Amino acid sequence: MALEEGAASVLRTSAGVKAGERVLVIADPERMAVGRAFFYAAAALGTDPVLSLIRTREGAGREPPELLAAAMLESDVVLLATVHSMTHTHARRAANRAGARVVSMPGISEEDLEGGAVTVDHEQLRQTMRRLQRKLRAASEVHLVTASGTDVTLGTKGRDWNFSDTGVATHKGDVTTLPAGEIFVAPLEGTAEGRLVADTFFHEPLHAPATAVLSEGHATRVIGAEAAVLEMNRGGKEGRNVAKFGIGLNARARPTASLPEAEKALGAVHIVFGDSLPYGGKVSAGVRVDAILTAASVDVDEKPVLDRGRLPP
Predict the structure, then answer these.
(1) Domain boundary residue, one of 94, 119, 144
(2) pLDDT tens-digit readout, 21-38
(3) Ranges in the chain, pLDDT < 50
(4) 286, burial (CB in 10 Å: exposed 0-12, middle 13-18, buried 19+)
């Protein structure tokens, strides 16, 4: 029953499912219990859903069977509950062009539906992002502090923050990926300064905090994260570029979970080193190294955005 309640929350707040809509649920054998939960929840909302079981794809981005791709074109809502992501497939893009709303949930588990990150109220999450969007629209400087020793400033003047990770796909042709809940920006090159202490993740899960000394926009010294250093070095100097600054806003996401859930957790800050082009920056390094900090305090232009992991009133 808890699985169906979680699935119903996703259907209502993420996909905006209405009675009478054509709902297609796609699952693979490892996610069959999740697929069934979405099927029964969709039926309870007054739809006549279809549950399709497919062979597990070999990796992310692999196409579904042609028969299923055709069915996606005829659907109002498509739910992708699969081990590997089908977000970046021709079938998904074609379904969106045909007007379908697509919710992609790569790697979703039964635990995720039992009160996990995907069951957050996505409409409420979107409203939180809208409030922050007004505050951050013309931001010039970010100051990040944590109790574990982080004290970092970075510049964002002229850079656009991204507020698209709402988890909401309620309009014709929308697509979203769950779990959702991160806002982010590409810091201005050469501006990041200070001491960064990652306490849960630095290219891999951490057993003890790891530190990066930041100067002129780069990690000049990294202590306690050997795998991160090796990966950064693959990109040369720009492999140490501070590429992305993200803030998690999802109150049901776990900061100690694996990526991508950890970066969405309320109070978590997500720092990426290396390529910044995907986030609106100018650096192409050929590498990406993620770091996660928890219970963060963030001020933007001296106005609080996070206070020790909580949203200020």
Answers:
(1) 119
(2) 999 999 999 999 999 999
(3) none
(4) exposed
